[in-house]
Write a structure and sequence with these properties.
Blueprint (H helix, E strand, L loop, with lengths): L1 E5 L3 H13 L3 E5 L10 H6 L7 E4 L9 E4 L1 H12 L7 H31 L5 H21 L12 H10 L13 H11 L2 H13 L7 H8 L3 H5 L1
Parallel strand pairs: 1-2
Antiparallel strand pairs: 1-3, 3-4
Helix pairs in contact: 1-3, 1-6, 1-8, 4-5, 4-6, 5-7
């Protein structure tokens, strides 16, 4: 059994997608980040960066105590290695999968996240910042579109690279993008969206948080953190 500490964000979706794809037994431990539940001491023991997702695997491959993992990329890699699925078994294929996994966690996710912040949530509109991150999101979409030319999935077979990237493309309209401008990406996006496990993962999100709303209190919790937040 795996405990999934989760909220309905792109990074949270990644792990729900893997668990559904692999058919692993798991139970969801919701962590409402708008209410500050990510600062609870018990959660910080397994996720010291006070971010979701995190997991606790009560049946790890090696004997001993349960294994906790935080950071979505690390969790995807852990689960792929645990199950032997969704990562290529050969050296070159594994490298490709990891390259594109890290491309997402180091590029697409952070840049699209800043896009979301400055376009959707910032208390003042800063044209330079908005333009900067919308353009960079578009550049990354173009990189992925080029990668998908002649390929069904990002790293050959369907893998953790696809699971990592897909949730960050779901809000493409809010990111100021048009899928029609990226035909290879659009084809891939529609194929991934149609997977039964993908639908189940997003049904889970809707069941847990059916009407996501950014309240003023949530804004203060999520965007008011600094070093003092960690120290207190």
């Amino acid at each position: 059994m795996i405990d999934l500490y989760y909220w309905t964000t792109p990074n949270g979706h990644k792990i729900a997608i893997f668990l559904e794809e692999a058919g692993l037994d798991y139970r969801v431990r919701p962590v409402d980040i708008g209410k500050g539940e990510q600062f609870q001491p018990d959660f910080l023991k397994i996720s010291p960066n006070n971010r979701i997702p995190a997991i606790v695997d009560h049946a790890p491959a090696e004997p001993g105590a349960p294994v906790s993992v935080f950071e979505s990329g690390a969790i995807l890699l852990y689960l792929a290695e645990k199950t032997g699925r969704f990562i290529a078994p050969d050296l070159r294929g594994r490298i490709e999968t990891l390259e594109w996994l890290f491309w997402q966690v180091g590029g697409l996710g952070p840049m699209a996240g800043q896009n979301h912040h400055f376009v959707q949530y910032a208390p003042e509109r800063i044209p330079y910042a908005m333009d900067r991150y919308v353009k960079e999101t578009g550049r990354l979409y173009a990189v992925l579109d080029r990668r998908l030319s002649g390929r069904e999935f990002i790293a050959g077979s369907y893998s953790i690279a696809d699971m990592a990237a897909y949730p960050w493309v779901v809000p493409w309209e809010r990111q100021g993008q048009r899928l029609e401008d990226f035909p290879n990406l659009k084809r891939w996006f529609e194929a991934v969206a149609g997977r039964p496990a993908m639908r189940r993962a997003y049904e889970l999100a809707h069941a847990i948080n059916p009407q996501p709303v950014m309240t003023e209190d949530a804004r203060k919790v999520m965007f008011g953190q600094d070093a003092g937040t960690v120290r207190r």
